[in-house]
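Open question from group meeting: does this chain pack into something compact, or does most of it stay loose? Before anyone orders reagents, we agreed to write out a predicted structure and look at it together. Recording both the input and the output here so the notebook holds the full record.
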Amino acid sequence: MKKSEFPEEERVIDRLLRFVDWAKAGKMVKSRNEFEKRCNLSYNYLYNTQFMTKSSIGCDQIAKIHDAFPMLNVTWAITGKGSMIEMAPDEGYKEAYENLRKQVRDLKKIISKIDT
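Structure tokens returned:
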């Protein structure tokens, strides 16, 4: 069989990019670059790792990401096993509450702009 007939195995970078998309959808970050800044990663680190190098992400970078986003399940990020998000029950409510508060503030800003 040709190599192209086999599905490509998902890499750590692919899973981390899925996490970035999740963080963007949850309005925790607006872009990959903002994600990189919050994690103290170099500019375009994710893009360069995805397309420009054949190397994988190191433990130091994963630790930086986890420090900035402790809900990331590191086991999932490395192996693909388990769920992407790992939170203690108390933390989940707090984070959801904070995200909702941010969304309410954003909506109030939009409404005030419409009213003026």
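Observations to bring back to the group:
The mean pLDDT is 85.
The CA atoms of residues 89 and 95 lie 10 Å apart.
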